[in-house]
Amino acid sequence: MPAPPKQEAQATDAGLRPLDPAAIEQILATLHGLPRPVLEEFTTGFRRRFQVPPEATTIADRITQRRHHDWIEAFLVQHQAAA
User: Fold this and answer.
1) Model-level pTM?
2) Helix, strand, coil proportions of the chain in percent (round to 5)?
């Protein structure tokens, strides 16, 4: 099987980069400010997208990578557009 193109591999690697603690704190502060129904929709979507097991009581400790940040940003933009 051929190796993935270099550009695709770099995009994947970028998504796996860890977030700095300040970025994580900012994300969590933004999420805590969401109305309850939106927060529940977010939590359900994040669990589905990143395969968080049902027995995990929180997802806050799983927001650690650039791909999480990007997904959250897209969710927030989509929600703002719908509001």
Assistant:
1) 0.82
2) 65, 0, 30
